[in-house]
Amino acid sequence: EIVLTQSPGTLSLSPGERATLSCRASQSVSSSYLAWYQQKPGQAPRLLMYGASSRATGIPDRFSGSGSGTDFTLTISRLEPEDFAVYYCQQYGSSQFTFGQGTKLEIK
Amino acid sequence: EVQLVESGGDLVQPGGSLRLSCAASGFTFSHYWMHWVRQAPGKGLVWVSHINGDGAYTTYADSVKGRFTVSRDNAKNTLYLQMNSLRAEDTAVYYCARPGSAFSKYIWFDPWGQGTLVTVSS
Questions:
Q1: Cα Rg of chain A (Å, integer)
Q2: How far apart are CA A11 and CA A105, in angstroms?
Q3: Which of A27, A29, A4 is nearest to A102 (CA)?
């Protein structure tokens, strides 16, 4: 099973700032089969990125993803108030799909 | 519009059973693998199980193997999760999720249902 470790656990920033979230895999993620999801309290997760760097439909271009192999990054260029939420990475390259433990992005 | 609506969550005693349902609409259900993912209160997302389009192939997380069974009724556009021998640690919101593309096993999840809460407690 591929273990995904996200850092930091909590990120405190202000609107307008840049956010950088990390996701590290215990072994290489095949074909960059790495997705990012956003979850707000009381809501289901929402797909943000897939294939490590492709934005899902309707996701603003302030969100970007990068990385390959074992190291992946989600960047939010200029934080909007609605971006404060929990973010999860997920690998979908093996039958035991796994998620990171999440990064909580909170308002400073 | 693609929709996934879970139901069946409830309070159940340890050792008990429960069946969750996920009603799908807005897409050709039989063309898609389908997944169950759970989230314990205040915790992260954990993949539980998936099933292929015709129901012939299933996979489970080790934590539920032998206790949970995923199935589907393509005539009713409905996904199921039969949960037996429930434990306190199975307490969670259970989401069904559809892959982003048809006929694809290794694909991201989009969309997700709103979830149904299962509480295992005496």
A1: 13
A2: 5
A3: A4
Rounded to 5, what percent of chain A is helix, strand, coil? 5, 50, 45
CA-based nearest distance A65→chain B, Å: 15
Which chain A positions have a beta carbon within 8 Å of B95's beta carbon? 44-45
pLDDT tens digits, one per residue of B52-98:
999 999 999 999 999 999 999 999 999 999 999 999 999 999 999 99
CB-CB neighbors (< 8 A) of A90 in chain B: 45, 108-109
**What SS3 class is residue A1?**
coil
Could you give phi then psi for residue B104, rounded to 5 degrees?
-115, 125
Q: Which A residues in the span 43-72 are in contact with B, Cβ-Cβ below 8 Å?
A: 43-47, 50-51, 56
d(CA B2, CA A57): 14
Maximum Cα interatomic distance, chain B, rounded to a whole number of Å: 42
Contacts of B26 (CB under 8 A, 6+ apart): B1, B2, B3
Query: pLDDT (tens digit, 9 = 90+) per residue, A73-96?
Result: 999 999 999 999 999 999 998 878
